[in-house]
Amino acid sequence: MPIVPLKFRESDDDLLLFADDAGGYFKSDSKFLHRYALGRLEPSDIRFLHDHGHGFEEIGDLAYSGFEHRFASRQYVPHELDYIILVPTLRCNLACGYCQVSRVNENTPGFDWDEKTIEAVLRFLGNLATRKIKIEFQGGEPLLRLDIIKRVRDYCRVKFEESEFVICTNLQDVSFEAWKLLEQPDVFTSTSLDSNPLTHQFQRTITAEKTNTFFKNLAAAVEKLGPGKVSALPTINPHNPPLPQSVIDTFLDFGIRSIYLRPVNYQGFARRKFDARASAKIWNQYHSSFIDALVELNWISDQPVEEYYFVHCLRRVLRAGHNGHVDLRNPNLVGYGYLVIDHDGELYPTDEARMVSRIGQFDLSMGDVHSGLSRDTVDAFNAEALNNFHPDCVHCPYQAFCGVDLVDDLSRYGRIDLPKHLTDFCQRHTYIFDKIFSMIYSDDPKVRKSLAIWSGSPRFDGSLAKVHR
Amino acid sequence: MTRRPVYLPNSGEPIHKENVDFDDSTFSNQLASLMEAASNVARAQTIVPDELMPWVADASARFSYLHPGVGLNIEGTLVKFAGPGADDPALLQDFLFCLYRQKIYSETLIHRRMLIEGVTGFANRAT
Amino acid sequence: MISLSIQVEPFPIVEPLIVRLQESGTEARSQHDAVLLDIDGHRREYNFQGFSFVVRTPPDECIDGDVLLVLPGQTSAHRLIRASSHHNTLLVTEQCDQLCVMCSQPPKKYHTDLFDQFAVAAALAPQGAMIGISGGEPLLHKTRLFEMITKVAVERPDIRFHVLTNGQHLEPSDVETIFQLGRERILWGVPLYSANRNTHDRIVGKDGAFARLELGLVTLMRAGASVELRTVVLQQNWSDLPDLATFINTRLGFISVWALMQLERIGYGRMNWDSSFQDTSTEFEQIRRAVDIATARGIRTSLYNFPLCSVPPEYRDFAPSTISDWKRKYLEFCTDCGARGTCGGFFQWYSHNEGFAALGPL
Ligand code: SF4
Ligand code: SF4
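Output (structure tokens, whole complex):
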């Protein structure tokens, strides 16, 4: 009976983790590895592999087809363009330390869409085939151009059957008119809440007065709009991170129970100042301690809390077809499902690509909103954006759960062919999957409770941690 | 993985512990450092089973790429390792794993291509 | 209990006839419409193409829009479509090639082909209706069934079907037909009782059934069909449920929903009740595990025909009300139950002294 290819990795319990291309996994010992690698499987091995979807009788039978289906569901297929990020202005009323290339001062002229660009953007939206649209306004501080937001919104509400708007705002200066906008049912608010008031002030608001304003506005937003309509991202400096508990407490104060930790994304010089490899390690340690803190909290609290990306990765381990996150896909074809229209009308496949192009590293632009979309550059790029045959990833049991992020590689190393294990992307994901598997195979009832919550089932069943002996 | 952090691919830097700083040390300090460095250059060897010989070349290439600080010398079925920590049993095991991985990879490549062709039709992009 | 037949006065026909009952004052919209003229107690008189067509039914019963099948010489018509119900099922044949221990509709030898009539009836159903197709085994008459569904699909693209099949007769050559009918058109309800082929074969009373079913499921997967996988919980497969969840995850990830179903005490289900009924009110562990595994794997899982008070609180969200209105009843203790609105209750033919031991109002 044929066995599907298995990849393996040592784990911290003296066993080896095995996984196949469709994301099926189990643990076994090195004796099994020898038998498998040397083609000396015993009947009990074969029975186990067959029962758990790692083998089949013949191509086309149910076991094979089921495997193929799981494999296929893990391959990301871009859908039509229905998600547009708009940057109507680069001006901002804050000057956060880590945000240099994506903003200019509030009074700087020439960094807003002009009338011609606005019209071109509306025309661009008008030509989309989709019936549902999601528009995200970024900046700069988009609320500085409330007028543009309203024009786009009015246009979309007529043109599309369904539309949804996300305003990424620093909530620093929210006028009466702006509140009225945010209160509408199809408008969602996304803001930055850097861990706790102290860190927030240090990293973003600088003065106590501005810090107070922000926290007052955030409280008002949660109160007026409801926690379901407000999301907040904490940007963490891994070299000087806040205590996990203080981050969690701050978010819980605002009724926000999904926390998406993001490492500071240095660009240009600031990035070079910190050794990227060391950063991944420090970040991973911090992230791990954060997850541990959540596990402790979930054990005693009846209001569960999650770290968004960790849960996303956990579900990607457990399920096929969980391809909803733009940062973790394979193949990671950019420039199709969503794109960014910059303050000068340039089109970019992602926000990160916009940064890379802005600081002059590489030009990843896809044309501009006046002359139209051109995918030549990104398509050349996309041709490389898969891990299926990557010489490192083919040996990695995490391949099926993982993805690729070539823009990230490019922005950090100026190239996309660095050995994977030296990249920040690989180091972060190796860590995160190591962590996930150490939790899946843990007997600790606290860990199992959190896993159940995060995987969406009442209890986390022991058979999700199969061991073949 | 925790057993041999020095060689952990993810720790990044290759293993040049013998980079000794001569700047402001006394001679005896320098000597001590040199001796320590020399003692780090260990040696080991292993015999590759016949049935794995077809994959020795590929496995060695991959091993060297993962462990740039360790020298490899292959004479027939005898593989010699030299470099800091080369006598760590975990390193030998890693070499064996490289052999296994190479064997598994090449023997299952047909299956993998078929799977990908059947599903997405982009196998021809493979290198 | 709502009756699925209705008294009619003898009507001079030689062929089976399909009639749709319309309230008075409406226009006949098709040659099958009968328009109400007069209600007199239990007697309702309709104008059917200029003839008098008489139905006997309690005066308060709403039958407007219902579609009847009238057979020559019979005074009882089948209410094929009840316009006010979401549970309309066409029993297209009583033949079957399996003999399941819990069969609620034990097979018969002979078959009367009424597919043409069923096609007409389905096309007269209310807007957006989902019509059940059941048996026996409908796919024993696969060609006729597909003809019927295709015909309705052309005339009434808004109508969908829920086909209950044992999956024994689906072959690779059906992929194209099923694909053409479209994923939205048909929900296939297919039973699978165990990942252990012997257990499955024993439950369905047919050697090799599991292997045939595997092929049938491959066919549905390749056709991109939407499938409701149905597992009746029995003593016979009780300890197999967690493994079945694993099997479904590895082989059947494409299904739309996995339904774990309580036993219906009718037909063979009644005959084999003692050796088959698993009291899940006193022991839930295997279902618990099956639901946990499938849910963590992202497979939508649902508990059909479980009284809510038989399900532990954290699993009640998995148990929608599923017993068809015309088959449903509640027991005395349900009167003071706060969950009655969301609970599906019991089958009419459920017998409490042989049933669940640990129930009570919530
Ligand atoms: S990027 Fe790293 S973690 Fe991800 S599949 Fe490749 S080798 Fe594995
Ligand atoms: S008492 Fe009756 S209505 Fe209430 S949950 Fe039980 S069966 Fe349902």
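Chains C and B do not touch (no CB pair under 8 Å).
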